[in-house]
Amino acid sequence: MAKEVNLTEELKKNFGFDTFKGNQEAIIRNLLAGKDTFVLMPTGGGKSLCYQLPSLILDGTAIVISPLIALMKNQVDAMRNFSAEDGVAHFINSSLNKAAIDQVKADILSGKTKLLYVAPESLTKEENIDFLRQVNVSFYAVDEAHCISEWGHDFRPEYRRIRPIINEIGVRPVIALTATATPKVQHDIQKNLGMSDASVFKSSFNRPNLYYEVRPKTANIDKDIIKYIKSQEGKSGIIYCLSRKKVEELAELLQVNGIRALPYHAGMDSTTRTQNQDAFLLEKIDVIVATIAFGMGIDKPDVRYVIHYDIPKSLEGYYQETGRAGRDGGEGQCITFYINKDLQKLEKFMQGKPIAEQEIGKQLLLETAAYAESSLCRRKILLHYFGEEYEEDNCGNCDNCLNPKKQVEAKDQLCAVLETIIALKEKFKAEYVIDVLLGKETSQVLSYQHEDLEVFGSGQGDDERTWNAVIRQALIAGYIDKDIENYGLLKVTKAGHAFLKNPVSFKIVKDVDFEDIEEEVPMKGGASCAVDPELYSILKDLRKKIAKRLELPPYVIFQDPSLEAMATTYPITLEELQNIPGVGAGKAKRYGEEFVKVIKAHVEENEIERPEDLRVRTVANKSKLKVSIIQAIDRKIALDELAESKGLEFGELLDEIEAIVYSGTKINIDYFLHEIMDDEHIDDIFEYFKESESDSLEDAIEEFGMEYSEEEIRLIRIKFLSEMGN
After folding, report:
1. Global model pTM greater than 0.70
2. Residue 278: per-residue pLDDT
């Protein structure tokens, strides 16, 4: 069949392209010859064409199994654009009604339809299997095939049932396609689809035009992102967050700051989701803030940056998501914000899953941490993960290569690692090897009696970070190997044994210590060098003066962190003052004039250049939750009932109410207090706060001993702050 077809002519006729990209032509010839085909091709390499063109050439209908409804719609629209006949491509999934499905079936049986997209869930339905048995199937394409493997980043159990169903409908050639697969995942896919003898076509995973950078995630992340987007005026970008809630909040924050952005996640109704996706594709907006559900198969070639607000769960997920930048070969900036706490959170989410799944998830997270913390070329690490060697020493297009760290000799450390792995009979993971090197008497070490080994404690001269770096870089250099099948046990390779016999120079780059960086949160504590000490003390004096005049404790006017922020960013208008943490519109109006005047005078006198730092506008009242709490209190709803209706613990509700009064909004909770407390107890605590130097809860609890509960003290403090300060 393949011989009779002029593929270049077919390509020109059907898609208007003059030449094939990479190994597209070889893949298509293989499929046309009726052979099973496995395609590993990075995002943007042109995977879809590998099954679209053969489907138009061969008799019958090709069945494409694809995981996402949005993706199917996108692909079907694209195919219809290329053809004069609308019936050329169809999809069947849960979004269609009965009449629409009948129309699809009629088109297929009449021979019009060359491509049928099916979700795996729809494929398993009995009535669909019965229908497809009557169809002349040309071949099956399994798109996003990594969903089959639980080692892949998007595991979908229903993908595991594809092979038995193919056998039921009728055996035809299979083409499996994915943009990300480690050797382990590739093996898993082939085994599960029963295509171990398939021809494998693997393109390089290197995307030279993509720039990779990992930044520490500090308290200023929102400001950093807004600043970055404003520097990319008019360019398209995607921001990935792990939670739907964060997606909504960040999209709203960007809008308030004049950025054309919309959210996208699986929890939205499908109409809104499709509208938001289309707005991005049609460039009505610049930025889409999304969970990972966004972007599979979205063919937008000019996404110029992809930002990860949260570190992804696996390097495969990371590679796939960053791969949506610069698909046209132009600029693509991939910026990730990392903090170790995020990984701990992700690990928590895994509790409750089967142990084997938790172990797999943990291994994937460790790989991600290794990537983020390493000072090695990021391209080298990524490609090594996908089983590809990158020969260059410096890629010139990642943060580590553009700012190389000093290398240190680690020949002795590598010998110690290799000796320890051998002494442990190659049966343990990296963390355990490091415990033994550092001489840690953990319960596991003691139960194996490894504290008696000669190597135990032999690495105490170096810290854990150094040992991590030695192991990671020895893996990339090929001296050790990680047995992924067995949860990442370390083995010494042939090259490793040779190194032990005859050690040569082995230089490493120390990992970045993100722990140090995350502590340095700006605008906290008087020690921060960003605070102008002279202005800070002027503001404290002013606060004292106003407090005396109004007979109030100073903290009621503004809290210390708010003064520190003022002495850092120099707000000189009431509008700017409202961007200071802890200053709402109410407070700014009530006390702001005098503060702004003093700051302005100080700036002029000392000829201070105010940081042309972005004034990030915050979303009014931060959230709908706060607005609904204020309304409920106005309606005099009991606070315990209110907490329950909002799905909050009582303490969490008090956190929200405190934030409301601290930013200057007046509320009245007397109706609730009189229900639960005696008047004299209320007066007692109220007087205490009136005379106290601080609003510290600990101090108040110490003062009242066991007389009042923490909740009672917090409630009166809320009453006090609201009445006296707002």
Report:
1. no
2. 86
